[in-house]
Structure formats: structure tokens, C-alpha cells
Amino acid sequence: MDRYPPIADHGLVGDLQTAALVSSRGVIDWFAAPRFDSPSIFAALLDHDGGGHFLLAPEQEEGTWKQLYYPDTAVVVTRFMSPDGVGETVDYMPVHRGLTASDRHTLVRVIRAVRGTVRFSLECRPRFDYARSPHQLDLTERRATFRAPGATAFLQATFPLERDGQDVRASITLTTGQAEAAVFTTDREGSTAPPPPPERDRITDELWEQVDYWQKWVRTSHYHGRWAEMVYRSAITLKLLTYAPSGAPVAAATMGLPEQVGGERNWDYRYTWVRDGSLSVRALLDLGFAEEAARFTHWLGDRLRAHEGPDGEPLQIMYRVDGDPHLTEEVLEHFEGYRGSYPVRAGNAAMDQLQLDIYGEALYALSEGHAVAVQADYHGWKALARSLDWLADSWDRPDEGIWETRGGRQDFTYSRVMCWAAFDRGLKLAAEFSRPADTVLWTKARDDILEQVMERGWSEKEQSLVQHYGSHVLDASLLLVPRVGFLAPRSASWLSTLDAMDRVLVSDSLVYRYDPAASPDGLRGSEGTFSLCTFLYVDALARAGRLPQARYTFEKMHTYANHVGLFAEEIGPSGEQLGNFPQAFTHLSLIMAATTLNEALDALRR
Question: Tens digits of per-residue pLDDT, 539-556?
Fold first, then answer.
């Protein structure tokens, strides 16, 4: 199973409607089109032999490989260095500037010899519809057309291509200063209009246009604090993971990558979670990206107005990027899974779970965004108010909780805390915007939740808030308690909870979300520490005034980033990254931690 690269051994490129992973050996081993949540075209990361890949890299194995981003962009540069020569592969996807969904998406790959002589190989082996749909190849000297049910793809190069069955290969030798290009374009089924053939000058101009686009976007940020390079990389990653036509971010670019190699915790994260998207609003606003934050709050307002949750609930926990609530889960039985991590799932059966905390995160987003349409518009406000009226009758019941456990419903403390946040923010919005609301009902619900949590969600044994009522299990989701204002960040109750988490959930500054052995979640196997939780821990430490500990934990966490500053969902016992990659939740929590800690350190200096 060592045919698979480490999960972290990749850079991410994208066009704001979909994305691809490029390994540090120049292989595109994950790409789905036309959207993030579409069936894959290259998926060697989930099945090395049968998933499909696109290699364009030096043939020589002996040498040194390095990968980096062109500064403050989404352009990936993969470098190869040997005594015979130095070569580069530059990868990018031209950004779709408008907000219209497109069937056509393009991967541009430029190769060049920086010094000496370098021989490059090309292998293009697309496997459409999760490698379930066979394709036919039409080949001319420099253009390949792949036709499959539901899709067409074109590969065009500035050098000759060769047939390899129904796939394509090529080899070319470059000397100092020479450059060539290969362009892979996906389109709808039956398309007969390939893009213009690649020309070196036009591709060079387009490359610099992409560099200019990303660097100009980064310059609109008003964040100039510490760790700016990591913060900007996280912001670019969040933007790359956002579907521009709707403004909705996906949780990750990939599906099926394991939380434990060889285990069954392999989920499809290419959808928009209300929770993740809502928390991203504050992170984006902290950096000055108000337009991106507002677009998600509009999307969220549309979901509230649609009222499409299961069993009469106002919201579903996750949606497709266009707001479609249908995410039927299936097992791709023909995929062996990353290093044998089976099953590989497409879709997500957790869509129907009851997770009451999402209403707190939704109201948190809408209150942070302030004058967005859902507050300013009467009908939008009425949809929000109806949701809170529903919640007033529904908050006091068990749910599946933030971690989407499949072991049965519990009275999760975090869910109650975020229901409190929903009513707290709703009351403040009603007052600020002078909107009609059943403030008596909402106030009673808010106060009842606070009293219930402190009576039933508190463990005298642990001197801490706990995962669910009647247990003594700790849960890192509660690190958000001071951020939403449920407890003051330096109150005795919160500091005692933070101390308990230090004892039980923190290992060498890394944070476990909970102990599955103490709180069975219905799944076999173990998991690593959650990077999201570690950054929330930094945020909570900073708010508690424990700045030396917060700063050291944050700095140490940077050592677990991959070579281009990206994070997956988890960190394994040997420091390896695990789970889907890169994960938006991790990067937005990095931004949250950085801004909180930076402000606290500045205040200390003053």
C-alpha cells in the first residue's frame, strides 16, 4: 500500500467551482468536475490502480523533489533537482470570474527546464464517474478527446501525444530555458468544441493573470498581524473551497480519506455544513473579506426561507453547494480505499441527523454579518423568527451532536450551549433591527437552557462541563463556550473546564475531540487529534489570558502543517495528517486562533 503518497503530500489548485490535488511528484490524483461534489475524474488517491491520474513530471527518480505555492496565490510549483538538471511543473486552474456555474473547467500544467537537461513524462488516465464509466479516445497529434457517458474531456499539448489503449502518454526532453504545456479541460457530454490549442505566450500571460488575481485579493485583507503568511494561506484555501456561484464553502476538497488508515471512518466532505460555513463568517470578517462573508449569509438565509430540513425542521445540517438537500450515501465497492481504507463512501447519510447546535452557529453567522438580507428584509426576518419559534419548542431533546456520531442520540451539552447562542443572538438582532419577535418566548428558552446546562451538563467529579448529561466525558467542542459568550473566558467555571481539558484531551499541545472508548460513537477504530480542536484550544487559552501557553501551542501546531501550509482534519500518532484534505474547518479555526491571539498579544504590549 506504499504506492499511495502521504495525504499531506499535496498542493491544492482550483477555479472557485471545483479543485484538484497535485502531489509533490507531479501527479494529479484527485479531481472532480464540474463541481466539488461531482463524480471524480482522477481518483488515484482512493484507488491507485483504477481511480485515474494525470502525471506530468520528470522521468528520473533519483533527485530531490520540492513543492511550493507562488507567494500569496493558488499556483503550485513542483520542482525537481538532480545533477543532470532542474525541472519545474507549474499547475493552476484559471479562475471563473463570474458567478455563473460552468460545465467547462481547465487544469493548466506548464513544464520547463530551469537548468541542464530534463526528460518529462506525461500519463493521462481519466476514469469518469468514480471510475464506473468507460470512455473512448479520439487522438490527433496534439489533442486527445475523451468521451464518456455524462462528460467529455480534452487534453491538448504543445508537444506530441501517443495513444496508450484508451489513455494518453508522452515524453519530451527539455533543455535550459525551454518550456511546454499540457491543458486538460472537462466539459459536458457531447461537447464538440475544444478550447483553443495552447500557445506558450498565451499561457504565460494567463499564468501571470492568475498570480495577479490572487495577490490582489490577498491585498484587500486588512490583517497585518503576526503569522500573516499562514493566515493568508488559510484564507486562500477557504476561498478555493468555496463554490463561487452560491457562496457556499465545502468542508474539504476530497472524499473517503481515512481518519485512521485501514479504518472505516471515511466520509464524503464535499458538501456545505451549516456549522462550518457559519463559523467561517467571523473568520472572513476578521480578515476584511466582507463580500465572501455576506455571500454565505445570503446562502444561509435562502436555506432558512426554503425550510427544507427533515421532519419539519427549518434547516438540514448539510447541503450540496447549490442548496440541494439530497446527499444520498453510497459505497463505491470497486475502490479499495486509500491504503486499503474501506469503505469509500460518496454522499453522506448524516444529512438527516438532528444536530440542534446548527441553529446557534447560523444565528452567530447572521449576527456577525449584521445588515445582510435575512435581517434587513422582512420576509427573511420572518423565516429566521419562525426558526427560533420552532427551536423554542424543540431544543430540550437528545440529538446526534456536532460530531455526527452514529451511536444514538444524547443530551449533548454543546448542542444546548449553541441553542442558547441562537436565542441570545436572535434577541439582540430583534432589538438592533427593531424586528417583530416573541421575545418573551425566546428569553425564557435562553434562560432555561443556561440553568439546565449548569445543573445537568456540569460534572462535580471533573469540575467541568461534559459531553452530554449524565456523563463525565469531556468534549473539545465546548472550547467554543467563551467565544459565543455562554461563560466568561476567565470565569471560575470556565477556567476549571479548561484545566480539565488540559488533563484529559490535550497531548503534547494537540487536542482530541473526545475519547471514543469512554463515549462510544457507533464506529470501529480510533482517530487522531483534531486540528480544529487544537486551534479552538489556542483561542480559548488566549481568551483566558494564558498567552505563553497559547502562543507556544499555536507555534507548535504550525510544525504539523504540510510543506505548503495546508492541514487535513486530524494529526495521527506519528505526526501524519489524516482525513479529508485540505479541511476548511481547520483553516478557519487557524484564522480565528491567530486573530484572537494576535489581539491579545498586542493588548499585552500596550
Answer: 999 999 999 999 999 999
pLDDT band, residue 375 (cuts 50/70/90): very low
> CA torsion angle for 445, 448, 449, 454 (degrees, to 10)?
170
Residue 441 backbone phi and psi in degrees, to 5: -65, -45
E strand intervals along 126-244:
136-139, 143-148, 151-157, 162-164, 167-175, 179-187, 242-243
pLDDT at 108 over 70: yes
Q: How many residues does the chain have?
A: 606
Alpha helices in 220-311 (DSSP H): 228-240, 274-287, 290-306
DSSP for 426-491 reads: HHHHHHHHT----HHHHHHHHHHHHHHHHHHSEETTTTEE-SBTT-----GGGGGHHHHTSS-TTS
The answer to whether the beta carbons of residues 226 and 594 sit under 8 Å apart is yes
Grid coordinates representing 98 are 463570474
For helices 358-369 and 378-392, angle between their N-to-C axes, nearest 10 degrees: 150
Per-residue pLDDT at 372? 47
* Cα first-last separation, the chain: 54
CA distances for 520 relative to 213, 514, 516, 524, angstroms? 47, 10, 5, 9
